[in-house]
Amino acid sequence: MSRRFACLSLTLWLGGLFGCATSIQAQTTFLGPTPYLSAADRPAGFSSGTVLVEDFEDGIVDPLLTINGSVIGPGGLADSVDADDGAIDGSGTNGRSAFSGGSADVSFSAPFPTSAGMVWTDGGTPTDVTFEAFGPTGTSLGTHGPFTLGDSNNSGGTSEDRFFGAQDTGGISRIRITHTSGGYEVDHITWSDGSGQPADLQLAIGSSATTAVTGGSVVYDISYICSSGDGPKARGAKADPGGVLCADSAFVDVSVPANAQFRSAGSSAGWTCTPDTTAGSVCRNVLGDLAFDEPGQIQFAVQVNSSVPNGTSTLSASATIAATATPGLTDPDSSNNSDSLNLPLQIAVVAVGPDIIPTLDQLGLVALGALLLIAMWAHRRSL
Ligand SMILES: [Ca+2]
Ligand SMILES: [Ca+2]
Ligand SMILES: [Ca+2]
Ligand SMILES: [Ca+2]
Protein backbone atom coordinates (compact mmCIF):
# COMPACT_ATOMS: atom_id res chain seq x y z
CA MET A 1 0.00 0.00 0.00
CA SER A 2 1.34 3.38 -0.93
CA ARG A 3 2.09 6.03 1.62
CA ARG A 4 -0.43 8.26 -0.08
CA PHE A 5 -3.10 5.63 0.45
CA ALA A 6 -2.34 5.35 4.14
CA CYS A 7 -2.80 9.11 4.51
CA LEU A 8 -6.10 8.88 2.73
CA SER A 9 -7.37 6.27 5.18
CA LEU A 10 -6.67 8.37 8.22
CA THR A 11 -8.08 11.55 6.74
CA LEU A 12 -11.26 9.84 5.77
CA TRP A 13 -11.93 8.33 9.12
CA LEU A 14 -11.55 11.70 10.73
CA GLY A 15 -13.92 13.17 8.20
CA GLY A 16 -17.04 12.12 10.09
CA LEU A 17 -19.78 9.60 9.73
CA PHE A 18 -22.55 11.55 8.14
CA GLY A 19 -21.20 12.82 4.84
CA CYS A 20 -22.29 9.87 2.74
CA ALA A 21 -23.93 10.73 -0.52
CA THR A 22 -24.99 8.07 -2.93
CA SER A 23 -26.54 8.12 -6.34
CA ILE A 24 -27.60 4.51 -6.09
CA GLN A 25 -31.38 4.19 -6.29
CA ALA A 26 -32.61 2.78 -3.00
CA GLN A 27 -35.00 -0.17 -3.01
CA THR A 28 -37.16 -1.35 -0.15
CA THR A 29 -37.01 -4.93 1.03
CA PHE A 30 -39.75 -6.19 3.36
CA LEU A 31 -39.17 -8.92 5.95
CA GLY A 32 -41.63 -11.22 7.69
CA PRO A 33 -44.06 -11.96 9.07
CA THR A 34 -41.95 -14.51 10.96
CA PRO A 35 -42.60 -16.18 14.35
CA TYR A 36 -40.89 -14.29 17.17
CA LEU A 37 -40.42 -15.33 20.77
CA SER A 38 -37.20 -13.44 21.56
CA ALA A 39 -34.65 -11.11 19.93
CA ALA A 40 -32.88 -14.23 18.66
CA ASP A 41 -35.75 -14.64 16.20
CA ARG A 42 -34.91 -11.40 14.37
CA PRO A 43 -34.53 -12.35 10.70
CA ALA A 44 -30.96 -13.04 9.62
CA GLY A 45 -29.53 -10.20 7.59
CA PHE A 46 -31.75 -7.59 9.19
CA SER A 47 -28.74 -5.27 9.50
CA SER A 48 -24.97 -5.62 9.31
CA GLY A 49 -24.40 -2.82 11.80
CA THR A 50 -25.52 -1.99 15.31
CA VAL A 51 -29.15 -2.96 16.02
CA LEU A 52 -31.24 -1.29 18.73
CA VAL A 53 -34.36 -2.82 20.32
CA GLU A 54 -37.05 -1.14 22.44
CA ASP A 55 -38.73 -3.90 24.46
CA PHE A 56 -40.59 -1.48 26.83
CA GLU A 57 -39.45 -3.48 29.87
CA ASP A 58 -38.14 -0.38 31.65
CA GLY A 59 -41.51 1.29 31.09
CA ILE A 60 -39.92 4.14 29.13
CA VAL A 61 -39.95 4.67 25.37
CA ASP A 62 -36.52 5.36 23.86
CA PRO A 63 -36.23 9.10 23.08
CA LEU A 64 -35.12 8.23 19.54
CA LEU A 65 -38.64 6.92 18.94
CA THR A 66 -42.09 8.42 18.77
CA ILE A 67 -44.86 5.86 19.19
CA ASN A 68 -48.57 6.45 19.32
CA GLY A 69 -49.21 3.69 21.86
CA SER A 70 -48.90 3.50 25.65
CA VAL A 71 -46.71 1.10 27.56
CA ILE A 72 -48.80 -1.52 29.40
CA GLY A 73 -48.04 -4.42 31.75
CA PRO A 74 -46.89 -6.42 33.38
CA GLY A 75 -50.08 -8.28 34.09
CA GLY A 76 -53.60 -7.70 32.91
CA LEU A 77 -53.97 -8.16 29.18
CA ALA A 78 -50.32 -7.35 28.46
CA ASP A 79 -48.96 -9.35 25.53
CA SER A 80 -45.20 -8.85 25.46
CA VAL A 81 -42.69 -10.77 23.40
CA ASP A 82 -42.44 -14.06 25.24
CA ALA A 83 -38.84 -13.92 26.51
CA ASP A 84 -39.16 -10.47 28.10
CA ASP A 85 -40.66 -11.84 31.32
CA GLY A 86 -37.65 -14.10 31.80
CA ALA A 87 -39.03 -17.31 30.35
CA ILE A 88 -40.09 -18.50 26.92
CA ASP A 89 -43.18 -20.28 28.13
CA GLY A 90 -45.95 -19.45 25.70
CA SER A 91 -47.03 -16.34 27.61
CA GLY A 92 -46.08 -12.67 27.42
CA THR A 93 -48.48 -11.53 30.15
CA ASN A 94 -45.73 -10.73 32.64
CA GLY A 95 -43.83 -8.49 30.23
CA ARG A 96 -44.57 -5.06 28.79
CA SER A 97 -45.72 -3.97 25.38
CA ALA A 98 -47.17 -0.90 23.61
CA PHE A 99 -50.92 -0.67 23.17
CA SER A 100 -52.98 1.69 21.02
CA GLY A 101 -56.53 1.90 19.80
CA GLY A 102 -55.44 2.99 16.32
CA SER A 103 -52.68 1.93 13.99
CA ALA A 104 -49.31 1.14 15.56
CA ASP A 105 -47.10 3.99 14.32
CA VAL A 106 -43.42 4.36 15.16
CA SER A 107 -41.29 7.29 13.96
CA PHE A 108 -37.51 7.50 14.16
CA SER A 109 -35.21 10.46 14.71
CA ALA A 110 -32.61 11.34 12.08
CA PRO A 111 -30.19 10.02 11.07
CA PHE A 112 -32.75 7.49 10.00
CA PRO A 113 -32.20 3.74 10.23
CA THR A 114 -31.81 1.70 7.06
CA SER A 115 -33.49 -1.31 8.71
CA ALA A 116 -36.57 -1.07 10.95
CA GLY A 117 -39.23 -3.42 12.24
CA MET A 118 -41.53 -4.39 15.10
CA VAL A 119 -43.38 -7.38 16.46
CA TRP A 120 -47.15 -7.66 16.22
CA THR A 121 -48.22 -9.39 19.43
CA ASP A 122 -51.98 -9.00 19.51
CA GLY A 123 -55.12 -7.75 17.83
CA GLY A 124 -58.72 -8.84 17.88
CA THR A 125 -59.90 -12.08 16.44
CA PRO A 126 -57.76 -13.32 13.56
CA THR A 127 -57.22 -10.13 11.61
CA ASP A 128 -55.61 -8.98 8.40
CA VAL A 129 -52.33 -7.26 9.29
CA THR A 130 -50.45 -4.89 6.97
CA PHE A 131 -46.99 -3.42 7.51
CA GLU A 132 -45.85 -0.19 5.88
CA ALA A 133 -42.58 1.79 5.84
CA PHE A 134 -41.90 5.42 4.98
CA GLY A 135 -38.81 7.15 3.57
CA PRO A 136 -36.94 10.19 4.91
CA THR A 137 -39.49 12.66 3.52
CA GLY A 138 -42.49 10.69 4.78
CA THR A 139 -43.30 9.12 1.44
CA SER A 140 -44.56 5.55 1.65
CA LEU A 141 -41.99 2.96 0.58
CA GLY A 142 -44.81 0.48 0.07
CA THR A 143 -47.03 -1.86 2.05
CA HIS A 144 -46.45 -5.49 2.95
CA GLY A 145 -49.52 -7.63 3.41
CA PRO A 146 -52.20 -8.11 4.48
CA PHE A 147 -51.44 -11.32 6.35
CA THR A 148 -54.07 -13.01 8.50
CA LEU A 149 -52.75 -13.33 12.07
CA GLY A 150 -54.12 -13.93 15.56
CA ASP A 151 -55.32 -16.72 17.84
CA SER A 152 -58.66 -15.29 19.04
CA ASN A 153 -57.17 -14.88 22.49
CA ASN A 154 -56.15 -11.62 24.17
CA SER A 155 -54.57 -13.18 27.24
CA GLY A 156 -50.91 -13.04 26.23
CA GLY A 157 -50.38 -16.05 23.99
CA THR A 158 -47.17 -15.80 21.98
CA SER A 159 -47.36 -18.44 19.24
CA GLU A 160 -49.21 -15.88 17.12
CA ASP A 161 -46.54 -13.17 17.48
CA ARG A 162 -44.88 -12.07 14.24
CA PHE A 163 -41.97 -9.83 13.25
CA PHE A 164 -42.37 -7.37 10.37
CA GLY A 165 -39.50 -5.30 9.00
CA ALA A 166 -38.19 -3.24 6.11
CA GLN A 167 -34.78 -2.36 4.72
CA ASP A 168 -34.02 0.65 2.60
CA THR A 169 -30.56 2.16 2.16
CA GLY A 170 -32.18 5.55 1.61
CA GLY A 171 -33.40 5.59 5.23
CA ILE A 172 -36.66 4.79 7.01
CA SER A 173 -38.36 7.56 8.99
CA ARG A 174 -41.46 5.67 10.11
CA ILE A 175 -43.06 2.23 10.22
CA ARG A 176 -46.70 1.39 10.72
CA ILE A 177 -48.92 -1.63 11.31
CA THR A 178 -52.60 -1.54 10.49
CA HIS A 179 -55.09 -4.35 10.90
CA THR A 180 -58.78 -4.92 10.50
CA SER A 181 -59.91 -5.97 13.97
CA GLY A 182 -59.24 -5.04 17.61
CA GLY A 183 -56.77 -2.86 19.46
CA TYR A 184 -53.09 -2.84 18.59
CA GLU A 185 -50.36 -4.40 20.69
CA VAL A 186 -46.75 -4.37 19.49
CA ASP A 187 -43.32 -4.96 21.02
CA HIS A 188 -39.60 -5.07 20.20
CA ILE A 189 -39.34 -1.99 18.04
CA THR A 190 -36.10 -2.87 16.23
CA TRP A 191 -33.91 -0.57 14.16
CA SER A 192 -30.38 -0.14 12.87
CA ASP A 193 -28.19 2.63 14.20
CA GLY A 194 -28.92 5.43 11.75
CA SER A 195 -25.32 6.55 11.54
CA GLY A 196 -24.49 3.09 10.27
CA GLN A 197 -21.40 1.01 10.78
CA PRO A 198 -18.62 2.89 8.95
CA ALA A 199 -17.54 0.87 5.94
CA ASP A 200 -15.36 3.29 4.06
CA LEU A 201 -14.44 2.16 0.57
CA GLN A 202 -11.25 3.86 -0.52
CA LEU A 203 -9.14 3.72 -3.66
CA ALA A 204 -5.83 5.22 -4.77
CA ILE A 205 -4.12 4.95 -8.16
CA GLY A 206 -0.36 5.19 -8.51
CA SER A 207 2.49 3.94 -10.68
CA SER A 208 6.15 3.20 -10.36
CA ALA A 209 6.53 5.15 -13.61
CA THR A 210 7.14 8.88 -13.22
CA THR A 211 6.61 9.67 -16.90
CA ALA A 212 4.86 8.11 -19.88
CA VAL A 213 6.44 7.91 -23.32
CA THR A 214 4.66 7.62 -26.66
CA GLY A 215 4.80 4.05 -27.91
CA GLY A 216 5.63 2.75 -24.44
CA SER A 217 3.55 1.14 -21.72
CA VAL A 218 2.49 2.20 -18.24
CA VAL A 219 1.40 -0.07 -15.38
CA TYR A 220 -0.90 1.50 -12.80
CA ASP A 221 -1.14 0.17 -9.24
CA ILE A 222 -4.67 0.47 -7.89
CA SER A 223 -4.85 0.11 -4.10
CA TYR A 224 -8.16 -0.35 -2.32
CA ILE A 225 -9.59 -1.06 1.10
CA CYS A 226 -12.94 -1.16 2.90
CA SER A 227 -12.07 0.48 6.20
CA SER A 228 -13.79 0.33 9.57
CA GLY A 229 -11.78 3.38 10.57
CA ASP A 230 -9.53 1.30 12.80
CA GLY A 231 -6.76 1.26 10.23
CA PRO A 232 -5.61 -1.49 7.90
CA LYS A 233 -4.77 -4.92 9.22
CA ALA A 234 -2.38 -7.43 7.82
CA ARG A 235 -3.83 -9.90 5.36
CA GLY A 236 -5.17 -12.93 7.15
CA ALA A 237 -5.96 -10.97 10.29
CA LYS A 238 -9.40 -11.44 11.71
CA ALA A 239 -11.90 -9.30 9.91
CA ASP A 240 -13.23 -6.41 11.95
CA PRO A 241 -15.81 -6.41 13.31
CA GLY A 242 -16.56 -10.08 13.73
CA GLY A 243 -16.02 -11.08 10.11
CA VAL A 244 -19.00 -9.03 8.98
CA LEU A 245 -19.16 -8.11 5.35
CA CYS A 246 -17.73 -4.63 4.70
CA ALA A 247 -18.46 -4.24 0.98
CA ASP A 248 -20.90 -6.35 -1.02
CA SER A 249 -19.84 -7.27 -4.57
CA ALA A 250 -17.24 -4.52 -4.86
CA PHE A 251 -15.71 -3.60 -8.22
CA VAL A 252 -13.17 -1.18 -9.69
CA ASP A 253 -13.78 0.81 -12.87
CA VAL A 254 -10.95 2.46 -14.82
CA SER A 255 -11.33 4.73 -17.82
CA VAL A 256 -8.76 3.94 -20.49
CA PRO A 257 -6.67 7.14 -20.78
CA ALA A 258 -6.81 9.29 -23.91
CA ASN A 259 -4.05 8.42 -26.37
CA ALA A 260 -3.68 4.91 -24.98
CA GLN A 261 -5.33 1.52 -24.96
CA PHE A 262 -5.72 -1.23 -22.37
CA ARG A 263 -2.88 -3.74 -22.36
CA SER A 264 -3.44 -7.17 -20.83
CA ALA A 265 0.28 -7.72 -20.38
CA GLY A 266 1.14 -6.24 -17.01
CA SER A 267 -2.52 -6.11 -15.93
CA SER A 268 -4.12 -8.25 -13.24
CA ALA A 269 -6.57 -10.91 -14.38
CA GLY A 270 -10.26 -10.12 -14.50
CA TRP A 271 -10.51 -6.87 -16.46
CA THR A 272 -13.47 -6.54 -18.81
CA CYS A 273 -13.51 -3.45 -21.03
CA THR A 274 -16.62 -1.86 -22.54
CA PRO A 275 -17.12 -1.31 -25.41
CA ASP A 276 -13.50 -2.18 -26.27
CA THR A 277 -9.96 -1.54 -25.07
CA THR A 278 -9.46 1.82 -26.72
CA ALA A 279 -9.26 5.25 -25.11
CA GLY A 280 -12.45 6.27 -23.32
CA SER A 281 -13.65 2.71 -22.74
CA VAL A 282 -14.37 1.67 -19.16
CA CYS A 283 -12.65 -1.44 -17.84
CA ARG A 284 -14.11 -3.20 -14.80
CA ASN A 285 -12.49 -5.62 -12.38
CA VAL A 286 -14.94 -7.37 -10.03
CA LEU A 287 -13.34 -7.77 -6.62
CA GLY A 288 -16.28 -9.51 -4.95
CA ASP A 289 -17.10 -9.18 -1.25
CA LEU A 290 -14.57 -7.32 0.90
CA ALA A 291 -13.93 -7.91 4.60
CA PHE A 292 -13.09 -5.03 6.91
CA ASP A 293 -9.62 -3.51 6.84
CA GLU A 294 -7.94 -5.88 4.43
CA PRO A 295 -6.12 -3.86 1.76
CA GLY A 296 -5.70 -5.14 -1.78
CA GLN A 297 -4.04 -4.04 -4.98
CA ILE A 298 -4.57 -4.75 -8.67
CA GLN A 299 -2.68 -3.63 -11.76
CA PHE A 300 -4.00 -1.93 -14.86
CA ALA A 301 -1.64 -1.52 -17.84
CA VAL A 302 -1.92 0.61 -20.96
CA GLN A 303 -0.04 0.97 -24.23
CA VAL A 304 0.52 4.62 -25.11
CA ASN A 305 -0.17 5.51 -28.75
CA SER A 306 2.92 6.11 -30.91
CA SER A 307 1.63 9.44 -32.09
CA VAL A 308 -0.44 11.91 -30.12
CA PRO A 309 -2.00 15.28 -31.03
CA ASN A 310 0.30 18.28 -30.93
CA GLY A 311 0.40 19.84 -27.49
CA THR A 312 -0.39 16.63 -25.58
CA SER A 313 1.71 16.69 -22.44
CA THR A 314 0.04 14.34 -19.95
CA LEU A 315 -1.41 10.85 -19.70
CA SER A 316 -4.43 10.95 -17.38
CA ALA A 317 -5.97 7.86 -15.78
CA SER A 318 -8.83 7.67 -13.27
CA ALA A 319 -10.32 4.81 -11.23
CA THR A 320 -13.36 4.31 -8.99
CA ILE A 321 -14.41 1.65 -6.50
CA ALA A 322 -18.06 0.90 -5.72
CA ALA A 323 -20.18 -1.81 -4.10
CA THR A 324 -23.79 -2.80 -3.61
CA ALA A 325 -25.34 -0.75 -0.79
CA THR A 326 -25.86 -2.79 2.40
CA PRO A 327 -28.35 -1.94 5.17
CA GLY A 328 -26.52 -0.95 8.34
CA LEU A 329 -23.30 -0.02 6.58
CA THR A 330 -22.39 3.55 5.69
CA ASP A 331 -19.59 4.81 3.48
CA PRO A 332 -18.78 8.01 5.41
CA ASP A 333 -16.95 9.62 2.50
CA SER A 334 -17.65 8.94 -1.14
CA SER A 335 -15.00 11.41 -2.32
CA ASN A 336 -12.21 8.92 -1.62
CA ASN A 337 -13.82 6.23 -3.75
CA SER A 338 -12.15 7.70 -6.84
CA ASP A 339 -8.64 8.82 -7.70
CA SER A 340 -6.70 9.92 -10.76
CA LEU A 341 -3.09 10.11 -11.83
CA ASN A 342 -1.59 12.47 -14.40
CA LEU A 343 1.81 11.44 -15.73
CA PRO A 344 3.94 13.79 -17.88
CA LEU A 345 3.90 12.45 -21.44
CA GLN A 346 7.12 12.58 -23.41
CA ILE A 347 7.27 12.33 -27.20
CA ALA A 348 9.67 9.58 -28.16
CA VAL A 349 12.50 10.65 -30.48
CA VAL A 350 12.13 8.78 -33.78
CA ALA A 351 15.46 7.35 -34.98
CA VAL A 352 16.20 8.16 -38.68
CA GLY A 353 18.53 5.92 -40.73
CA PRO A 354 21.11 7.55 -43.08
CA ASP A 355 20.08 5.29 -46.01
CA ILE A 356 16.51 6.53 -46.03
CA ILE A 357 16.83 10.27 -46.51
CA PRO A 358 19.99 11.82 -47.96
CA THR A 359 21.65 14.28 -45.68
CA LEU A 360 22.46 17.77 -46.85
CA ASP A 361 26.06 16.73 -47.23
CA GLN A 362 25.09 13.87 -49.53
CA LEU A 363 22.87 16.15 -51.55
CA GLY A 364 25.79 18.50 -51.85
CA LEU A 365 28.00 15.73 -53.18
CA VAL A 366 25.42 14.74 -55.75
CA ALA A 367 25.09 18.34 -56.93
CA LEU A 368 28.81 18.71 -57.10
CA GLY A 369 29.12 15.53 -59.16
CA ALA A 370 26.48 16.79 -61.58
CA LEU A 371 28.25 20.09 -61.95
CA LEU A 372 31.49 18.31 -62.70
CA LEU A 373 29.80 16.18 -65.37
CA ILE A 374 28.30 19.29 -66.98
CA ALA A 375 31.64 21.03 -66.85
CA MET A 376 33.42 18.10 -68.45
CA TRP A 377 30.75 17.84 -71.16
CA ALA A 378 31.00 21.57 -71.92
CA HIS A 379 34.76 21.36 -71.98
CA ARG A 380 34.76 18.52 -74.55
CA ARG A 381 32.20 20.32 -76.76
CA SER A 382 34.40 23.34 -76.84
CA LEU A 383 37.43 21.35 -78.03
CA1 LIG B 1 -42.99 -15.45 28.68
CA1 LIG C 1 -41.85 -6.43 26.02
CA1 LIG D 1 -49.75 -12.51 21.41
CA1 LIG E 1 -15.40 5.99 0.81
Descriptive notes:
- This protein has 383 residues and is mainly beta.
- The protein has helices at 3-14, 360-382; strands spanning 29-35, 51-54, 65-67, 70-72, 97-100, 104-108, 115-122, 127-134, 140-149, 162-167, 174-179, 184-192, 197-198, 200-207, 212-213, 217-227, 245-255, 260-263, 271-274, 282-291, 296-304, 314-324, 329-330, 338-346.
- It folds into two domains: 23-192, Jelly Rolls, CATH 2.60.120; 197-346, Immunoglobulin-like, CATH 2.60.40.1510.
- It is built from two helices and 24 strands.
- The N and C termini lie far apart (89 Å).
- The site of one calcium ion has 7 residues, from loops.
Secondary-structure topology with pairs:
Elements: H1 3-14, E1 29-35, E2 51-54, E3 65-67, E4 70-72, E5 97-100, E6 104-108, E7 115-122, E8 127-134, E9 140-149, E10 162-167, E11 174-179, E12 184-192, E13 197-198, E14 200-207, E15 212-213, E16 217-227, E17 245-255, E18 260-263, E19 271-274, E20 282-291, E21 296-304, E22 314-324, E23 329-330, E24 338-346, H2 360-382
Parallel strand pairs: 13-23, 15-24
Antiparallel strand pairs: 1-10, 2-12, 3-6, 4-5, 5-12, 6-11, 7-10, 7-12, 8-9, 8-11, 14-16, 16-21, 17-20, 17-22, 18-21, 19-20, 22-24
This protein binds calcium ion (4 copies).
